[in-house]
Write a structure and sequence with these properties.
It is built from 22 helices and 2 strands. It is an all-alpha fold. A two-stranded antiparallel ribbon has the order 1-2.
């Protein structure tokens, strides 16, 4: 039985084909959440305990097959952010428990184990992981510049979802059309462009656009367990840095030019003051953008259309305005509702602009070398997607694996006592 059956028209009406998958049955929602939980647990085990790139790769293939092609990209943890935002700001919206689980579980795992969701569970990241062929390193200035976009996109998505205007993350998901093998040609082409770009630039959507990745990055920075590279035995060969296609390996601070204390304070003052100006300027700009942004809301757009028809500025009615006039509702009620939405955009736009300025300011401050001292090459916990490639290139990691395999094959405790003495004699 369908959870939300369509109305039964008697006129022989034929429903148009839909691009979104039908609602999931209750039992299957439990199955999806159970699969997600198991995949996250396996990813954490493979990355942090087994330290096995091979196991992570096969889990990636499974996630593409299950969460991607079988589930058609829905439910998606990236899109669930908007459901949560809408539920927080609209008391009439009921948030499904499975959507809440898909939103929270990857974040909880990131708090304890880093970005294991990105490693091999997220269908959007998994499909990009499989097409990495010959990744190239981006210039640091470009890497830093693009890395702020996910946070700005996250703020914009929350703003539009909280006002009931649009679910931007779902509408402009570049891979969901590929998984569903349907959708607008522009979105299918966009997915193809991201995959083609991903052969040379590792995971371009994850690194420079994914809004959920921004949340995971924040959680992973405070995580106790993350990808590590035997820092006590690092020989500074830099092979891990070369192997990482995502630019997530940080150099030892001793190899970087160190500014004098006076230069460091001057930079902090300059960039700190610039950060404050960016926050204020961003808030002002967000307020200015509130009106054009609000026009993307269907209620505001309808109110403007009805007002234009009433004042003679619009000569033709739209389908939406015809339905509104046929409903017999007073235009004043529509105008009042549109005004409340626009006021929400004004407040939300200021906050979004301030957030964008804050992100830019924090990025500038991070360039003044607030990092802690590092004596070895280390994965950046915020940027590392735990793909486990660095394990396969670290010579000390390979030596450790061989020692463990040898110990399992020939237990030292089973060696005959005095064997080495007899041989030497």
């Amino acid at each position: 039985m369908e959870r939300f059956p369509p109305p039964d028209f008697e006129s022989g009406y034929t429903f148009p084909p839909t691009t979104a998958p039908p609602p999931r049955a209750d039992l299957m929602q439990y199955v999806d959440v159970a699969v997600l939980l198991a995949a996250l647990a396996l990813a954490a085990y493979f990355v942090l305990k087994l330290r096995s790139r091979k196991h992570v790769f096969w889990l990636t293939v499974f996630s593409v097959a299950y969460f991607g092609f079988y589930r058609k990209g829905c439910i998606c943890s990236v899109g669930s952010t908007q459901d949560v935002a809408l539920a927080l700001f609209n008391s009439h919206y009921t948030l499904p428990w499975s959507v809440l689980a898909f939103f929270l579980l990857p974040l909880v795992f990131a708090l304890f184990f880093g970005r294991v969701f990105c490693a091999a569970v997220c269908p959007l990241g998994a499909i990009q992981e499989l097409v990495v062929v010959k990744p190239r390193t981006l210039p640091p200035w470009l890497e830093h510049g693009l890395s702020v976009i996910p946070f700005i996109y996250l703020g914009a998505g929350i703003l539009f979802a909280a006002t009931g205007s649009a679910f931007l993350f779902c509408q402009y998901d570049p891979f969901v059309s590929l998984y569903r093998r349907s959708g607008a040609f522009a979105m299918v082409a966009l997915g193809g462009v991201f995959l083609l770009l991903g052969t040379m630039i590792g995971r371009p959507y994850c690194r420079f656009l994914c809004p959920y990745g921004a949340l995971l990055s924040l959680c992973s920075r405070v995580s106790r367990h993350n990808v590590t590279l035997l820092p006590d035995d690092c020989v500074h060969c830099q092979l891990c840095d070369v192997a990482c296609p995502y630019g997530a390996i940080r150099e030892p601070t001793g190899l970087l030019p160190t500014p004098t204390p006076q230069q460091l304070w001057q930079r902090r003052l300059v960039f700190g003051g610039l950060a404050v100006l960016l926050v204020l300027g961003g808030g002002w700009l967000g307020r200015q953008l509130a009106v054009p942004f609000s026009k993307l809301n269907p209620t505001v757009a309808l109110a403007e259309q009805v007002a234009a028809e009433a004042t003679g500025k619009a000569w033709q009615m739209t389908d939406a305005s015809k339905v509104f006039h046929d409903s017999g509702k007073p235009a004043e009620e529509l105008y009042a509702q549109a005004l409340r939405i626009r006021q929400r955009f004004t407040v939300g736009g200021m906050l979004w602009g301030a957030l964008a300025g804050l992100v830019l300011g924090v990025k500038l401050l991070s360039l003044v070398q607030f990092d802690r001292r590092r004596c070895s090459f280390e994965p950046d916990p915020g940027q590392c997607v735990a793909c486990a490639r660095c394990y396969t290139h670290c010579p000390n990691e390979q030596a450790r694996i061989k020692r463990e395999q040898r110990a399992k094959t020939i237990p030292l405790s089973a060696a005959p006592a005095g064997a080495s003495v007899t041989k030497n004699a």
